[in-house]
Amino acid sequence: MHRLADELAHIKDLLRNHPHGMSVTEIASALGRNKHSTGRYLDILHAAGHIDLRTFGMAKVFTLSTKVPLSALLSYTNDLVFVLDRDMRIIQGNDPFFDLIGIKGEIVLQKRLDQLELSQPDIRTFLTELSDKIFTKNETFEIVRRGQEPRYYNGKVIPTIFDDGSSADTIILEDVTLEKEALRSLRESEAFFRSVSDHLSDGLIVSEFVDGKKKVIFHNQRLCEITGFSADEISHVSPEDLALPEEKGRFMKAIREAEIDQGSMKEIRFWANRKDGVPIYLSIRAKIVPFGDTVRGYILITDMTKWKKQEEAQLLHATLIQRLLTNFSHPIFIIGENGVFFTANPAFCDLIHSKQEDVVGKHVTEVMPENVAKEFIKGNDELVTKKESSHVHMVVPFYKPGGSIGDVLIEKSPVSSGVNAPTYIFGVVITDDICPHKNL
């Protein structure tokens, strides 16, 4: 027995000095033994876990085992570790495992998992399920310790051989509760983000730039509704592809500026076409920011077609009104509640001997004598208070053609753009119809 121990120790020393490994032939030559007896020594060491065997083609190479001793594993890991013999009896365990079952180690040893007397029903159920999973001989498994605060574990079953040649199973339970909760929270966050983004009035697209190539990693349903593309199609459509040919240059310029000035929001508006060819007016706001080792682009796309058409209609309406005021022969003015001119046509400005730029935005007292101004705005407050659509006529001392001041007929009516909008006085000076009585 002493000679066998010496031979085994000699082989371990040989392998310690040859970290790249040795074949059976090389070890036998170094020992001065035949290959048969050397092979028997190697089998003993391999079964005991002292050496490792690697195969290269037909050749077998042995190296000194680098396995961590089980005692060290039990002492220094936070995982739950215990060892079961062939009869499923506990022969070793670490403190985290004993803390879980709430029994001291010396009481637990040499007992089967299903023989432990436990006061907590959830722990009994947990150990029963654990025994079943170990018995199936699966190398890895998942298990849950149910209760008021469930805990989740990833389990591993590792076949183990001791120095005396006996075999056992080492079970390692890694507590992955935090990871499970984080994953669940992440999924809930993703579901929440998806729900919120799908109810946005704007389209949202997130792109990632990797090695100079752009890849769409997220988009919401609203983007499909705006552009007319399906969810599968939109992943292959870039925002610049939506722009009309004559608009692409402006769009690409805005994107380049966003890439240079990362973190700032860049906006561009342009006409585009839906998939079905219907023209749409889009507002695109882009922000490009670093994200780990990559760069991400966040783009909000707003359908402003209705707004754009209303703006164009309002602009046309304003242009027509301005042209009407300019070409109308009678002096016309619009004045606010505060007595400030909103506008006045050239005929009115000529009547009071002023330029249009010297009238618009000025108070009546700034463009005419105080006594004339006082009579000119008389009755305005009552019209503003009543907010009636009907008009009134009044004769007041005012400028007459030729420059003199005399009784002039003025027609006034209140105008407003909405219920809570300011009220203005729209007036026409009827210079060729002077009434001799002021109480007309």
Automatic annotation (TrEMBL):
Q: Any one Gene Ontology biological process term? A: regulation of DNA-templated transcription
Identify the SMART domains for this entry: PAS
The residues covered by the PAS domain are 66-138, 189-262, 317-371
Which InterPro entries does the record associate with it? Biofilm_reg_signaling, PAS, PAS-like_dom_sf, PAS_fold, WH_DNA-bd_sf
Task: Please give one Pfam family short name.
Answer: PAS_9
Q: Which NCBIfam families match?
A: sensory_box
> PANTHER family recorded for this chain?
BIOFILM ARCHITECTURE MAINTENANCE PROTEIN MBAA, DIGUANYLATE CYCLASE DGCP
Query: Can you say what this protein is called?
Result: PAS domain S-box protein
Upper lineage is: Archaea, Methanobacteriati, Methanobacteriota, Stenosarchaea group, Methanomicrobia
